[in-house]
């Protein structure tokens, strides 16, 4: 299985950014645990981060034929981006929405995800473990294909 893990804006700051909400784990730490878990199951990982909406759109488009599952933490674009939503539905690659924090327990503007309806499912609220839980979810959906 080929797993594409995409991280949106400000996630490069994990570890120093609002640690009371997002914890002290860095994105590099998350990448390592995703690679370890995926590796144990024979899955390949392509792990990326961008602060640019258009770059994320391009990467989602390019996933067609190159990735079996996308794990996407779209950061703040989750709540604003019709372009990301259209890219996910357009590419047809099963996508799992991931968040460290429980977006439903935070400010009202975070309760709405514009991408949720075009994703297979959403994993949020488990801190860095949301990513490894999402790896398990992707293994489960790709084995059912
Ligand atoms: C986030 C939640 C978003 O609301 C926020 O804008 C982020 C991080 C999370 O992982 O909890 O940047 O996606």
Structural overview:
The mean pLDDT is 97. Helices cover 37% and strands 18% of the residues. The chain has helices spanning 19-22, 27-40, 53-62, 82-91, 129-143, and strands at residues 2-7, 44-49, 69-73, 95-99, 121-124. The protein is of the alpha/beta class and 145 residues long. Strand 3, helix 4 (82-91) and strand 4 form a beta-alpha-beta unit. The protein is globular. Bound molecules: 1,3,4-trihydroxy-5-OXO-cyclohexanecarboxylic acid. 1,3,4-trihydroxy-5-OXO-cyclohexanecarboxylic acid is lined by residues 10, 73, 75-76, 78, 99-101, 103, 110.
Major sheet: arrangement of strands: 2-1-3-4-5
Share of helical residues: 25-40%
Major sheet description:
5 strands, parallel
Order of SSEs: EHHEHEHEEH
End-to-end distance: 11 Å
Shape: globular
Beta-strand content? 15-25%
């Amino acid at each position: 299985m080929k797993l594409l893990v995409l991280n949106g804006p400000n996630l490069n700051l994990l570890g120093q950014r609002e640690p009371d909400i997002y914890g002290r784990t860095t994105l590099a730490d998350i990448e390592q645990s995703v690679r370890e878990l995926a590796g144990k199951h024979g899955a390949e990982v392509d792990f990326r981060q961008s602060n640019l909406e258009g770059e994320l759109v391009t990467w989602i488009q390019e996933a067609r034929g190159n990735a079996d599952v996308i794990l996407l933490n779209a950061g703040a674009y989750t709540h604003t981006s019709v372009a990301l939503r259209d890219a996910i539905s357009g590419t047809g690659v099963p996508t799992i929405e991931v968040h460290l924090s429980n977006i439903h327990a935070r400010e009202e503007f975070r309760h709405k995800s514009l991408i949720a309806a075009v994703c297979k499912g959403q994993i949020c609220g488990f801190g860095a473990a949301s990513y490894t839980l999402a790896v398990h979810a992707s293994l489960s959906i790709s084995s059912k294909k």
